[in-house]
Amino acid sequence: MTFKFLDLPLLPLEEIMSMMDVSDLLKISSCNRTIRDVAKGRKQIKSFYFLPYAQKEMMDSVDVFELLQIHRHLDYAKFFRVNPISFNLIVSNEIGIEIRLKDDKLLKWNIFMEFIGNAENYRGTKPYFLKINGEIVPSVLTKKSEMYTFWNDRLEGVKTMIAWLRRSFNMYFETFHVEGGSHPEFSKELRSIVNFANYRQHLFTNVMIDERKQLISHADLNFVAENVTAFKKHSHLGRGDFKGPRSNRFVESKSLLITDSRWFTLDHLLMTHCSTIRLVDSALDMHELSIFTLKVLKGDYPKLKHFCVKTYHKNWVSCILFKTNMFYSKRGYIRDGVYRTANDQLIRIPIGIVIESLNREVLATLIFPMQSDHPKKLKTFEMLIWPDFDGSNFDRNEVHYHPLGRAN
Amino acid sequence: MSVENAPVVDVDEAAIPVEKKMYYRFESNDKKEFRVSELAIQQSETLNRLVEAMGYTSEDVENKPAIAIENIDGKTLKLVFQWCEHHKGEAIPVDDGSVPKIVEIPEFDAKLMDIDNGLLFKLIWAADYLNIVQLLNVSCKKVANMAQGKTPAQLRRVYLLPSDEEDEAAKRAAQEAQDPRAREVEEEFEERKRQGGNSFF
What we know:
The structure holds 2 protein chains of 2 kinds.
Chain A (H helix, E strand, L loop, with lengths): L9 H10 L2 H8 L3 H8 L12 H6 L2 H13 L2 H7 L2 E7 L3 E8 L3 E10 L10 E7 L2 E9 L2 E6 L2 H16 L3 E7 L6 H15 L3 E7 L7 H10 L2 E8 L17 E5 L6 H5 L5 E7 L3 H13 L7 E6 L4 H9 L4 E12 L5 E11 L5 E7 L10 E7 L10 E3 L10
Parallel strand pairs in A: 1-7, 3-6, 7-8, 8-9, 9-10, 10-11, 11-12
Antiparallel strand pairs in A: 1-2, 2-3, 4-5, 5-6, 12-16, 13-14, 13-17, 14-15, 15-16
Helix pairs in contact in A: 2-3, 2-5, 7-8, 8-9, 11-12
Chain B lengths: L22 E5 L5 E5 H4 L3 H10 L3 H6 L3 E2 L5 H13 L20 H6 L4 H13 L3 H14 L5 H7 L5 H15 L1 H16 L6
Parallel strand pairs in B: 1-3
Antiparallel strand pairs in B: 1-2
Helix pairs in contact in B: 4-6, 6-7, 9-10
């Protein structure tokens, strides 16, 4: 059943468009220039945000990808400014692109590339034909948030997609996400994609290395550490059964997170110049931590603001305090304080010891965390370094210490 | 005298003269005649103004020829007047500016609009021409609902939308048809440009 939409007078045409929701309006706008011109003047097309959350949640990868392409015809720059949408590059057994929308909850949609010979293994709910550079790529929606596109060579497929998105949409990939892959070509694909992506954009906001399901070889990890740069956050999610050596060519990103960091030695730590360092399940002992702490207090790590290590070792606070007594004074403590880090994370300070230099400049605060003495529970060593600390933000009881540990 | 002390008078309700309902006669472009109540006509701003301007009495309505509506055929006009009779006396909705505009289609309207798309198209034309706000709203909503969950390719088929290239070609063809000399001039200009001439004249 057809309807002669464009033969309607302007008023009913506008009425009909005012009753459509954004996704329908965008789709119909992509069909014809006259409709696009009318639609541009309408308020609801300005943003994806006018869609209710429930409707966004119901959208599948095909819908979202359509919407992105349609927005390209409209005010795409504004679309990106208004909508908290980001794109990630995924390399694992699957290679592809993840689209993320930060709303009430985080919504994710994936577009994967696969060899066309394997197409019959994918049973889909909705076939789709992706048009890239005038060529049609057969695709299928396998789950609501997963779309597989089929190529003669999946590596060439992901490269074509990256180049097309960069060129047509000026799209920036925010996160480089690597997971261990059992695929025999994994290393080759990883290198090829990294080199190709680096040619298009020289750094990412975040790098995420996930070894929780499958370990990544030492060579591949070194390659990623040396060739993929994240300016904001470098995360490494590990698992306990790997204890071999790792690269010490380490990150220059703002923030570093390593879970299961037993491989992360003092050498690694001394090479790390991040503003936030968070190590979980670390093998660093009291002696190593106090060496690093003294270096920080000396000013060797001017970027560092927050340092947190979770370890099984005990009694580190008193040990480190004893070592710092030689050179610094502890002028009091903070109770129930809060510190806001550069990436807007709030760090609670139940009780923190303020460390000052001999000329009474506040250098750092060592935090006494709330923790149990259970041998299986991780103990936390946490330190805030703040040369710009003004001392007046917190309820502080002045307790004076002598540099050699004797109270005044 | 206060209101409480006013004398109570029994009124014989049957004795009050009841105003006779007036029915106007309209004629479609295919010469079909309809009789529509005065109250139903109020749903249409165009017809309401027309009958007010004409100032017809009951006798005039019977004696004078039916009011002709030239642009609308009998089948469509029947639907329009059925709708007006069903919704007579209802308030005319005011646009509250909500985006997207929220309109619900009542059961009667849904049944009335269970028609083919050609007739729905004519109904929207009629509602727009006769300025019947609520009928225009519900009929437009029905068309808007057709777009739900469709891909652009399906929308192109349903709404008969030409692509940008087809649109452009049609526009060019229309221009050429209007002015056959234009193409000749353009070709001549291209030819001169190829030959390296600086100016056309």
